[in-house]
Amino acid sequence: MRAGTAPEMRCETEMIHSFIAHTSPGRSRVFALVRSPADELEAVTTLGAGDLHLTGELVSALNSFLYDRDDSALGKVLDRVPKPVRMAAQQYLRNRCEPVMGAFTEYGPVEVVREAVYFSQIDAELEEYLESAYMIGLGIRMSNERLRDGGVGWVIRLLNDEVSVRASAEPRTWALPEGAKLARTWTSRQMTGSVGPVRGALQVAVDATDQGRWVRIHTLLHSRYDVDFEGSGTSEFVVDVFDSPIPLKQRGE
User: Fold this and answer.
1) CA nearest to 45, candidates 115, 96, 9
2) CB-hemisphere CA count at 13 Å for 63?
3) Helical H runs in the chain?
4) Were both Cys, which of 23, 147, 188, 223 would link to 229 (CB 3.0–4.6 Å)?
5) pLDDT bracket for residue 11 (50, 70, 90)
6) Angle at 12 between CA 7 and CA 16, to 5 degrees
7) pLDDT tens-digit profile of 17-61?
8) Helix, strand, or coil (residue 68)
């Protein structure tokens, strides 16, 4: 038996198409259908004979979570299944469905609230722009690009919120690009002294750019916990430096 499907959503570097279930008289096994690059089934959890009636509801809730990332709606269903089933499902989601662009927080979807803003250099004006966005809690995404005249510019997009990551997860909500080797990752937790997170991140970006490397900066909320991490995090700047040349600005952007 197959129960419920959902729109395709990206989790990590693979595509989870949907959750499905195979039910026999004695149990229901719940799987995630993963496309990476061929279709594969990954076991999620198993319901025993006494809980078969919850199969459809559980699978539908998992598929809804893929679409809207609504922890509260999923939690109502997980509260009704046996504890081992609940723990297995939660563990799978934590390991395989990190928050990504388009994720939801308790206040709604994380989305771009201001389209790309371009700066020709990192200077006081750019720093003030980031400081203002940071102070009012907007998410930040910034990267360098090679201009056609040989110079380097910076493109910044602002999001309506910062996405949270759990304590043990990598401090990143901007998925790493395919084909680019990561040279190093700096986070504002590494800072010492009186330099603030904005200036600290920009200094790392300047140094890497001087070496001709592609740089991306973004912000997130890093949780203190591995469960129920929304609202329990501290804001953090992340700078990814790639062992790749600065990409050329795309025509029309």
Assistant:
1) 96
2) 21
3) 55-68, 71-78, 83-96, 124-135, 197-210
4) 223
5) very low
6) 30
7) 789 999 898 899 999 888 766 678 899 999 999 999 999 999 988
8) helix
Residue type, 89: A
- Helix, strand, coil tally for the chain in percent (to 5): 30, 35, 35
In the chain, the amino acid numbered 92 is Y
Count CB-CB contacts under 10 A for residue 135.
9
Q: Is the dihedral of CA 180, 181, 187, 191 positive or negative?
A: negative
Q: Which residue do the tokens 């890093």 mark?
A: 222
Sheet strands (E) in 152-212: 152-159, 164-165, 182-187
Strands 213-223 and 39-48 turn out to be: unpaired
CB 223 within 8 A of CB 235: no
Kind of pairing between the strands at 164-165 and 108-109: unpaired
Instruction: Return phi, psi of residue 81, to 5°.
Output: -95, 160
Residue among 40, 97, 106 at smallest CA distance from 70: 106
